[in-house]
Write a structure and sequence with these properties.
Layout lengths: L6 E5 L3 E5 L2 H14 L3 E7 L5 E7 L6 E6 L4 E7 L12 E7 L5 E7 L9 E5 L15 H8 L3 E5 L9 H5 L8 H15 L3 E11 L1 H12 L6 E5 L5 H6 L9 H7 L7 H7 L12 E6 L7 H13 L6 E4 L9 H19 L2
Parallel strand pairs: 9-10, 9-11, 11-12, 12-13, 13-14
Antiparallel strand pairs: 1-2, 3-4, 4-5, 5-6, 7-8, 8-10
Length: about 350
């Protein structure tokens, strides 16, 4: 209605607003006075811009929807998004940062189990997929599940994660298994140096690129982890690049620049592919894969499992034939999380 720019939203440790309009700023200040402690997002408004739909959320709640009438100053709660969740049972997700061996500042999140002193904990290192996305502060059901079972959960936005500028993205090019992995390793060593992680009880779990980082962690830093869970992860960068889905074909030249070219960068890709270095793997590994995965072909998981089993190593391997890139059917999710929790408890708390 007023045709003015109201605010700029940006994401660092959490979501922040820089106001460009005094009226909008006043509305948010009014909402914060009553909804403090939650992130506040105006999701919609009427044409006259005096009635607003508001959503809240936090690291321990999916929040609620509210109706705000600017003229009457009425704030009415409409509904909880997840009334079955008790915030008092949830763990706090704390923004953290640390320095890498080459002087880079890496931001991340650390979730400690409730009612714990935060020392010498079993830790699940959880690098995000992508890899050119980022983790953000907020309610994460996987993180809360692990924390509820007594694990600290460590997420980091390693180099290449988005939201930190172009240079931070570009310095990840052709660094799979190299400096990108060093960022994860340095984060684990920071946790150990801070006394948070028990050095004998650190596991790593991730999906997609996070699954690759799990395999790379067990392969290239075999003494750092007590176990790993690879969920739809890449094991062989050559076959990964030759089995990408048709809708990624226009993206292939960019993939060659960002990951590596199968011919021009053969040595780099071979050195960074865990399947060619399985003799280094010492820690127990659990693998899960969807048979119809169009992004990370099932052959990626088959290769690593087959190679390890040929060495006489028993690798629990869960394949779901009605799944693709990640498990979306609830019965499969329940089965996976039950198996993963049992695996993590056995090797990190047993």
């Amino acid at each position: 209605k007023r045709k003015v720019l109201t605010a700029i939203t940006y994401l660092t440790d959490k979501r922040h607003l820089h106001f460009l309009d005094a009226e909008t700023k006043a509305i948010y200040k009014r909402l914060e006075a009553e909804l403090g402690g939650y992130e506040i997002v105006v999701v919609d408004h009427n044409r006259d811009e005096d009635k607003f739909m508001v959503r809240t959320y936090s690291d321990r709640s999916l929040g609620a929807y509210f109706f705000f009438d600017k003229n009457t100053d009425e704030l009415l709660k409409i509904a909880e998004v997840s009334p079955w969740l008790d915030e008092a049972d949830m763990a706090e997700m704390k923004p953290v940062q640390y320095q890498t061996r080459d002087g880079l500042t890496i931001h991340g999140y650390l979730t400690l189990p409730k009612d714990h002193d935060g020392k010498k904990l079993p830790v699940v290192v959880n690098p995000h997929g992508g890899p050119w996305v980022r983790d953000a502060w907020g309610y994460n059901p996987e993180v809360q599940l692990l924390a509820s079972r007594g694990f600290a959960v460590f997420q980091m936005n390693y180099r290449g994660s988005t939201g930190y500028g172009r240079k931070f993205w570009e310095i990840s090019f052709k660094q799979w298994g190299r400096k990108m992995q060093d960022d994860i390793t340095d984060g684990v060593k920071w946790l150990i140096d801070e006394g948070i992680a028990d050095p004998d009880r650190v596991g790593i779990y991730g999906g997609s690129y996070g699954g690759y980082a799990t395999l790379a962690g067990l392969t290239f830093t075999p003494d750092l982890y007590a176990c790993g869970v690879d969920y739809v992860g890449v094991s062989n960068l050559f076959t990964f690049l030759t089995t990408i889905p048709p809708y990624w074909k226009p993206y292939l030249e960019m993939m060659y620049e960002m990951v590596g070219h199968p011919e021009k960068d053969k040595e780099i890709l071979e050195a960074a592919s865990p399947v060619f270095h399985i003799d280094r793997i010492k820690a127990p590994l659990f693998v899960a894969q969807g048979a119809n995965d169009p992004r990370v072909n099932i052959d990626e998981s088959d290769q690593i499992v087959r190679a390890l089993r040929q060495r006489g190593i028993d690798v629990p391997y869960m394949v779901k034939y009605d799944e693709g890139h990640g498990f979306h059917n609830e019965e499969n999710q329940f089965e996976f999380y039950k198996a993963m929790l049992g695996f993590l408890v056995k090797y990190l708390k047993g």
